[in-house]
Amino acid sequence: MAEPVTIVKISLTAASFIKKYWRIILIILFIIALIPTLILTIAINVLFPQASTEEFEIYKELTEGSGIYWASFLAYDVVRLNNYLKDNNPKESVFDLLKVRFTEYEIIEKEKQVTKIINGVEVTETVIEKEYVILRELETNGYLEIKELLGSLNYNTSEDNMSVNKVTDFLEALNEEEEYEIEIAILTDEEIVQNFDDNYKQWFFALVEIIPLLDPSSEFDSDEFIFADITTNPDIPSIWPVTGRVTSEFGEVRITGIHRGIDIANVIGTSIKATANGTVIAVGTSGNYGKRIMIYHGTDEKGNTYVTVYAHLSEFKVGVGDKVSQGDLIGLMGSTGYSTGSHLHYEVIVNGVKVNPRYFLP
Ligand SMILES: [Zn+2]
Questions:
Q1: How many angstroms separate the alpha carbon of residue 243 from the centre of ligand 1?
Q2: Structurally, how many domains does the chain consist of?
Q3: From the CA of 254, how far away is ligand 1's center (Å)?
Q4: How many CB atoms lie under 10 A from the CB of residue 46?
Q5: Which residues form the domain of 301?
Q6: 285 and 233, same structural domain?
């Protein structure tokens, strides 16, 4: 226990300190409050260089109440446009995930004379018989096809009316009428990837799992993700990606921001290895990162999802969608992007947040 006098002394010192430096303290507190936002923004920008936080909101808004899983929708657009969301109109592509089965009938009513014998007396009655003749029958998906169908039904297809909810409401109301039979279905993830090649299929499924973890509103406590038993687990990034000298640690403060990876230096062309089994989700040039690879390692039994990033490479040895095993060659060391010399910038992302790779290194 501290002596009461000491406590008073400390409080007085603290009070005078706060009084003197309150402006600076306020600024520091403000910066600390900004850090989580900054980390998430960086995570989003690394995976989707053209996507902003607002883009996540658009995808959620467009799928609200439609039954479409927003992450599948966003992944669909990302894969379709090869890792970049530019030149993309999510308002139109959301219709790619809807399937409309449509049948229109012409109802022909015919009068028919029916003769019955009731109590031994012949009675002739006139009944109306309906005949359903199919006028048109189609199964369709995609913005333009659905718009064309709606236009033919005299629906106002101006931009404002082309929301999934409005279109669904209209078609459901029409379905109440006798001459229509309309069924609206949402494509399953399996159906979405039908026309993708094998690499794009794997990439799509990896993205569907990762995207929710990059959601800025999700919560993350980094202390929960430090384990003692990760070494030699091939499914968790637990080996060194390259041999060399560590020139910069995680957390160093630089002019460009806090260093969210570890830098390992060696000569240009040094082999870089995948640090765990996984699927390659991004291969390309991304701003300061230069040539960079991202690998998705799946989710472990504790529910943690891992992604690793390898930046400033000189050469790629894998492509998007490739399956890799721990220790496989994925690329060669270089100095591309914002780099002052040949080195690897290595990152470990757990549940969308960059953590110190040292936690996982032997
Ligand atoms: Zn670095």
A1: 15
A2: 3
A3: 10
A4: 23
A5: 222-360
A6: yes
Tokens of 322: 């490739």
Residues 240 and 296 in one domain: yes
Q: Is residue 170 part of a domain?
A: yes
Name the residues around ion ligand 1, CB cutoff 5 A. Answer: 261, 263, 345
CB 270 within 8 A of CB 318: no
For residue range 198-254, list pLDDT tens digits in order. Answer: 777 877 877 787 777 665 554 444 444 444 455 567 888 989 999 999 999 888 877
Residue with tokens 């992450």: 71
What spacing in Å lies between the alpha carbon of 212 and ligand 1's midpoint? Answer: 26
CA 210 – ligand 1 centroid, Å: 23
Phi, psi of 243 (to 5 degrees): -90, 150
Is residue 181 within 8 A of residue 103, CB to CB? The reply is yes
- For residue 260, the CA-to-ligand 1 centroid distance in Å is 7
Distance from Cα 249 to the centre of ligand 1, integer Å: 8
Cα(79) to ligand 1 centroid in Å equals: 27
With 0.85 as the threshold, say if the pTM is over it.
Answer: no
- Are 163 and 204 contained in the same domain? no
